[in-house]
Amino acid sequence: MTSDLKAIIHPKFKELFGEGGQLFFSAGRINLIGEHTDYNGGYVFPGAIDCGIAAQIKLNGTDKVRVFSIDFNQSAEFGVEEYDAPELSWARYIFGVCRETIKRGGKVAGFDAVFAGDVPLGAGLSSSAALESCFAYAINQLNNNGLDKMELALIGQSTEHNYCGVMCGLMDQFVSIFGKKNSLVRLNCKDLSFEYFPFEPKGYRLVLIDSCVKHELASSAYNKRRESCEKARDEIRKIHPDLETLSDAKRIWLDEVRDKISREDFMRAEYVIGEVQRVLDVCDALERGDYETVGEMMYQTHFGLSRLYEVSCEELDFLNKLARKMDVTGSRVMGGGFGGCTINLVRSELYNDFVSTAVKEFKNKFGHEPKVYDVIISDGAREIK
Ligand code: GLA
Description:
Elements: H1 2-17, E1 22-31, E2 43-44, E3 46-59, E4 65-69, E5 74-78, H2 89-103, E6 111-117, H3 127-142, H4 149-164, H5 171-178, E7 183-188, E8 194-198, E9 204-214, H6 218-239, H7 251-256, H8 263-287, H9 291-308, H10 314-325, E10 330-333, E11 339-347, H11 351-366, E12 371-374, E13 382-384
Helix pairs in contact: 2-3, 2-4, 3-4, 3-5, 4-5, 6-8, 8-9, 10-11
Bound molecules: alpha-D-galactopyranose.
Alpha-D-galactopyranose binds near residues 38, 168, 169, 335 and 336.
């Protein structure tokens, strides 16, 4: 993968900016379980994948940033003061990373960069976090800022909040940077402690089926989910003042405020409280090598995301149902939702049959083929020599 990106980026960099520059990469991600729990202070259980965003970068001795995006075939030039914000949406991610680095005391000297990605856009694999993390990592290194890796992840998250209008949690940027080959990482989003779990399931494979649908207004719907959770948390806090995050609430506490919050907010919170526990159950099951339980939890998550959190869609529900019908071990909508992929835990002997049937039946029903991605759990942000 990264060698292909290098082969695309290098000649373009040379053409636009001449010799030199260093190459950096950061990864997209999958998440086995723990969806919409991050901004509620709960656990997530993601892994970095073998595709992401790579950028060749060189300081240019000015106070301007000049960037070329190979995938958009566009360039942008901007300064790093607040009033310099560019219009192009991909450039705003890079600008945001510069600004957030400066806010944390880092230096951002002008630079030239060319970047490209091999993580599918809009598939829910966090191409935007890969972009933020790649530049956060590179800028930190080129300017010798010495910010630690967690701060780099937080820079990416604040970029989303302050420059891109998405009030996301930390999962994507965290794992894009901290991901490790053949391991998933369980992050406690309240205190930011984390633990790696080796993940090399024998006899099972993880595969993503990409519905190739992306719903408009996904980010405002996402922000609305977060607001619902905050309303539920605030109401519970009136009775249990020590409650810090919704993830710490007991299910019975939610029942205590049932009449005080909307039905919708209740359902959102009900899902989150269940999901936080499922992450812990999945980690326990993995340690026992009990993949059937892991899979069952994935189905429960799908149910919650579809019926309670309401972030699934017809196409993803169809894929999930089909997986169940074919006796696939686990399946669920992955990431923020409103389109994108299902993640499926499939016994190796069922893999070919499942994938070909899913492609065929999905096409019959929706008129276009879904895409299929095999999951390879890989390392996060790094310089590529
Ligand atoms: C998006 C966000 C993450 C997380 C997931 C849902 O990917 O960026 O912070 O909330 O949705 O789990």
